[in-house]
Amino acid sequence: MQISPELKNILHTPHRVAVFSHRNPDGDAIGSSLAMKQYLETYGHDVHVLLPSEYPEEFEALPDAADILIWDTQTEECKQVLNKKNLFIFLDFNALSRIDRMGEYIRELPGNRLMIDHHLYPELSAEFMFSQPEASSTCEMVYRFIQAAGDVDRITPRIGKCIYTGLVTDTGSFRHATNARVFRIVADLIERGTSDSEVMDMIFNSQKEKHLRLLGHCLNNRMEIYPEYNTALIWLSKKDYEVFNIQRGDTEGIVNYLLTMKDIKMAAFIHNQPSVVKISLRSKGDLDVQAICKKHFNGGGHKTASGAHVYDSLRAVIEKFKSILPEYKSQLVGQP
Hints:
This protein is of the alpha/beta class. The protein has helices at residues 5-12, 27-41, 75-82, 100-106, 138-148, 157-170, 180-191, 196-204, 209-221, 238-243, 289-297, 314-324, 329-333; strands at residues 16-20, 46-51, 69-70, 87-91, 112-117, 128-131, 223-226, 231-236, 266-272, 277-283, 300-301, 305-310. It contains 13 helices and twelve strands.
């Protein structure tokens, strides 16, 4: 990663900065945004992080998380802040549609744009773009961005905690999308004072009783196995959302439990949200679920982790998912 003299000059000159990430933010979205905020503040920038929607409770423990502005609940305040900004930074997404109405609002606002992202097929237009689908996470890219700027010594334990959060969550606790560079970054963060055990405790040991009861319900009552395709599915209805009082982030990670089964190569989580049906696909090995999502559900993401929103009934989406499995049998079971 190389940073141009023009961008380096912008970094070293205080600006009024807005940092954005995508709707339904995960650990990588929040971690990269807060890490970038704190890094830029070391140069005297005035920085606000803005998200389209609320984030999971476990990330409230991240430094400066309390300062995040949410468009859905603080729309007018977000507009007032954005009207004063002259540098816009897009993290962990590459199309303005991923930040919904906030994207429409900022489309014509004056100021430079910087995008740092690891998703396929960027659609954004920005003066400075760093698009690397091979990266494990946007947090990995933020670390390397700071490193390329010659500022790795500005990474404090607070910044390190945010970066480490994205590394952990987007690699499934370092089970996929890793490389030697990721582990060198982790080692450097720990040497600089980041507490890996503190981050792990924040992410994995802060669940509420209802989360475990929901997981039990999913595994016992909503799991379907299709052994002829080495595929498994968990689904949730609107009624399930009411019974378990499911809020944003409560279902995060449930789909990954399906991949813990030895012969399962593709896992699907299909759930009926208030206005859309959301499908999340995960895979092992070389199966490209991003291609499946794009072809059949107009979605996207990564090779081993992808998703889509479908305006149809829950039953229709489940049946469509089941109907496409024969098309991928050779990839799923190794035979036609």
